[in-house]
Design brief:
By secondary structure, the protein is mainly α. It has four helices and no strands. Helix 1 packs antiparallel against helix 2, helix 1 crosses helix 3 and helix 2 crosses helix 3.
Length: 135
C-alpha cells in the first residue's frame, strides 16, 4: 500500500511539473528550453520535478514570474518597473492596482466625494446662518 501511495505522489508531482513547465514563460525556465525540462521531468520524475519547482520558485522570487508587480495606469507610483517579458498566449492577470488605495481613480473619486460633502455642509451652514440673521 505504501509503494502505491509513493508511486501516486511521484506521478502527481510529475504531472504538476509538466503542466507548469508547459504554461511557463521563457524567462521562468532558468535558461533551459521547454523541451529539455519536459525531458528531465519524464526521464528523472522525482529529481526533475523537484528541480523544476525550485527553479520556478527562484524565478518568481527574483521577479521574472507572473506574480511580479507591474505598472498600473498611472505609471506604477513607487513600484518598480518589471523587466520586459516575452508575449505568451493565454489568460493574463489584470495589470491594475492590487489594493483600492493604490488605485488613482479610486482615490480621485474619494477626494471628489469629500469635496462634495464639504460643499453641501457649507451650504447647509450658510442657510442656517441666513435664517438666524433674518429672524
Amino acid at each position: 500500500m505504501r509503494n502505491i501511495l509513493l508511486i501516486l505522489v511521484i506521478v502527481g508531482l510529475m504531472a504538476y511539473a509538466l503542466a507548469d513547465v508547459w504554461g511557463s514563460d521563457e524567462d521562468e525556465r532558468g535558461g533551459l528550453p521547454r523541451w529539455l525540462w519536459v525531458l528531465l521531468i519524464v526521464l528523472l520524475p522525482l529529481l526533475g520535478a523537484i528541480s523544476w519547482i525550485v527553479v520556478r520558485l527562484a524565478a518568481r522570487r527574483s521577479g521574472a514570474g507572473p506574480s511580479a508587480p507591474n505598472s498600473g495606469p498611472s505609471g506604477g507610483g513607487n513600484r518598480p518597473t518589471p523587466p520586459p517579458r516575452s508575449p505568451r498566449p493565454g489568460p493574463r492577470r489584470p495589470a491594475g492596482p492590487v489594493a483600492p488605495d493604490d488605485d488613482p481613480e479610486f482615490l480621485w473619486r474619494l477626494e471628489q466625494e469629500k469635496r462634495k460633502r464639504e460643499r453641501e455642509a457649507r451650504g447647509h451652514q450658510e442657510a442656517k446662518d441666513d435664517d438666524v440673521e433674518n429672524s
